[in-house]
Amino acid sequence: MSNDTAAADRVPLRRIASLALPALVVLAAEPIYVLVDTAVVGHLGRVPLAALGIGGTVMSFAAWLGTVMAYGTTGRSARRYGAGDRRAAVEEGVQASWLALLGGLAIIAVVQVLAGPLARALAGGPTPVAQAAAEWLRIAVLGAPGLMLVAAGNGWMRGVQETRRPLAIVVVANLVSAVLCPLLVYPAGLGLHGSAIANVIAQLGSGALFTAALLRERVSLRPRAGDILAQLVVGRDLLIRGAAFQACWLSATSVAARYGDAALAAHQIAIQLWFFAALVLDAVAIAAQSLVGAALGAGDEPQARRLGRQIGLIGLASGVAFAVVFGAGARVIPALFTRDGAVHDQALVVWPWFIALLPLVGVVYALDGVMIGAGDVAFMRNMTIVAALGGFLPGIWVTYALDLGLGGVWSGLALFTMIRLVALLARLRTSAWSVVGATR
Questions:
Q1: Residue 434 lies in a domain
Q2: Which positions, given as ranges, span the membrane (predicted)?
Q3: CA separation (Å) from 127 to 34, 218, 260?
């Protein structure tokens, strides 16, 4: 194929943007709220901010389960949508919503029992930070069913390339919560508990709105064991992949906590900014999931491969842009979250690693979306396990053993990212990932 023909067959950037930009707003809404929450709680003092760091890390487990569900649902829905069966694509969302509801209730039960032990383990003992974190967790986890229903709703809507409804739902719910958080924390006098209550209101409200959107589709709401089992099989590999991620984040928080409250608070600021950047970069990956899945569902393997290359380059450009912005704000941004000088000093240790990784992360997240949209989840599972067990986890605990501080913690994250980048680029050059058909 000539260069002119290849260029003509590329998906127009405006088409990618029409999916990525609304997804960007949806993805950014939650981390922006978390950043607001962090800023509000940060002015209560070092202990509440560190407690929020621990509680937020545990609650990221529920967010991870939701991400697994959304990704699996998007890929399956997109293939059916690409094959011309929109009704079947929406019905994938029905089955995902049943899984979401049951999963959210299970998370509530588990966290109510284990909040104390988890907080003490991450804080390094029965400290005031651990007690505050456990109290925050027992309230915040009540929003888990809503959080999971939001993920299921986003999954099937992305699969059918619907962008307006999820955008409106998420923005409205998070605006309400962003207003409530400072009001409940300060004028209402609820302190750290007010932060947790605002989280619950946002998550349950969003989940109810996504459920209402599904009801308006007028498809069968009956749970189907076969379809649910098929989603669980797809989700299995993503679940294992996500477990490797969670082991890394929990280990990083645990090691950071052992360097003191200032180090843990600085890590909370940096990791939340990392999650914010990563999720915003993931908007490109979501466009890839939808477009690649639809192309393969329609039997257009060459288009899927062209999309893979395009999306990777867009991810790189996005990561560079983030690096420039956060690099310029290295001495200003931490001050938005706390006035504690010790926390500022620790944040400056993290910042060079944070900035250097962003361009690489842009490519990694973009290509993750390509592979997930293609349904190449077994490869994603294996790659992430190797990166975690062979890179991040050994690095993080060597850091603790050698007392290398927060810089060592983030060097482990750098190794994790590099291993994934090399594996994804190698996979993209093969044809093993681009299997056509309504299902993989």
A1: no
A2: 16-36, 48-71, 96-116, 136-155, 167-186, 192-215, 238-259, 271-299, 311-337, 349-367, 379-402, 408-426
A3: 24, 52, 11
Q: Could you give the CA distance from residue 47 to residue 304 in angstroms, rounded to a whole number?
A: 49
Q: Where are the alpha helices (DSSP H) in 258-298?
A: 261-297
Q: What number of other Cβ atoms are within 10 A of residue 177's Cβ? A: 26
Packing angle, helices 144-159 and 13-42, rounded to 10: 170
Whether 10 is covered by a domain: the verdict is: yes
Question: Looking at the domain assignment, is residue 390 inside a domain?
Answer: yes
| pLDDT surpasses 60 at 7 | no
Averaged pLDDT score across all residues of the chain: 87
User: Rounded CA gap, 147 and 204, in Å?
Assistant: 7
Say what the pLDDT of residue 9 is.
58
Cα(204)–Cα(210) distance, integer angstroms: 10
Band of pLDDT at residue 430, cut at 50, 70 and 90: very high
In a domain, 210, yes or no: yes
Query: Helix H segments across 225-260?
Result: 225-257
Whole-angstrom distance, CA of residue 341 vs CA of residue 130:
23
Counted domains in the chain: 1
Whether this model's pTM surpasses 0.85? no
Residue 21 CA to residue 287 CA, distance in Å, equals 9
pLDDT, mean of residues 337-358: 84
* 405 backbone φψ class: left, alpha, beta (φ>0; ψ -120 to 50): left
* Secondary structure percentages of the chain, helix, strand, coil, to 5: 85, 0, 15
- Domain hosting 211: range is 3-428
The Cα 222–Cα 80 span in angstroms is: 19
Measured between alpha carbons, how far is 217 from 205 in angstroms, rounded to an integer?
A: 19
122-126 contacts at long range (C-beta below 8 A, 24 or more positions apart): 122/54, 122/57, 122/58, 122/250, 122/253, 122/254, 122/257, 123/50, 123/54, 123/257, 124/254, 124/257, 124/258
